[in-house]
Amino acid sequence: MDPDGKAPEPHVLILGAGFGGVAALKALRKTRARATLIDRNSYQSFQPLLYQVATDELSIDEVGFPLRNLLHGRPRWAFHRAAVTGIDLHAKEVMLDGMGPLGYDYLVIAVGAVVNFFGVKGAVEHAFPLYTLRDAVRLKAHVLKSFEAADRDQSIVDDGALTVCVVGGGATGVEVAGALAELIRYELKDDYPDLPMDKAQVVLYEAGPELLAPFTPGLRAYAKRALEKLGVEVRLGDSVVEIEPARVHLKSGSVVKAHTLVWGAGLQANALGAALGVPLVHGRVPVNADLSLAGHPNVFVVGDAAIATDAKSGRPLPQLGSVAKQAGHAAGGNIARLIEGRPTQPFRYLDRGTMATIGRGAAVVELPWGMTLTGYSAWLAWLFVHLALLAGGVERSLTLRDWVWNLLTRRRGKRIVID
To answer: pTM here?
Structure first.
């Protein structure tokens, strides 16, 4: 008890402001706890729409939510923009770059994942991943600058200046490939009437035999047809082994002239998990049924940093935003129960289905009870779901405005690059 006879306010420290971390914070709204959110950025990114920033359909303020907005009207909440450098579970402290260590009573680790280049030579230096808002802005600028360079000197067209390679046939690769093809077909061809746009191409490489492996065979086949209808060249069963600034080397032995390579081939867990000193599973932290860390009932790990199992099937849950968001909410709820002296509850993931968009009027949706959708109905479902999931009302209204404009005109008004 403190001097006035009240129980001290427990301090909850949340590392990472992605879907999991923010959901955990919001789950603490009705508790008496102090909560501190830590992230290296001052905003939360809505990662499913990053590819639309990269392809000039949305702007950064439509997919980025200012984290300090969460503090308004919440005097017990704090946010610090800082990078986490270490965790001392025994001392209950977290070390931060540029700040003194912060102590905690309860800890939520939601630090997410980082891009996995699988050791491909030259990928770190020359590939363009699409996992953060910075990645999206960087890719957008590079694509537009490539077309500007070709406009000034058309001799580089035959060297691959207008060729974009996309690596990875998952949702990220499929969505960005389709969006790039639409950008070239419906916008850039009018921006650059003197360029030989028939030489501008998007090529998608997938090492496996099909696109969108988690989906049913019918949806995989539909996605391939829809991409090819947009002009994307889909290359299955081939992978990239080396990347140079203007060349892509394939496992088959071919060398492709391309000045842009978008990397959508996979993620790996944040290295911070290794600092916990527990055995990892494929780089991820195994957690108990209630998402707590073994031996540390006051520490919870959620999202891509954790490997949690489905309560029904016992299988590891996928690295999806929906899993991270539900897990974050569950972890915050369990902390609230512990503060109240009640037992925690096991995490139960509610699968609401999986979806991916290929282009205007083309998407795939697979619902958990086996129903599937394709075409316009799937595309409209994808639009409404993602609009509802955006963090704030301003972001939703701006995104809806731009989507309607693009639907009516096929025009993208975000083609501005500031050097």
So the answer is: 0.92
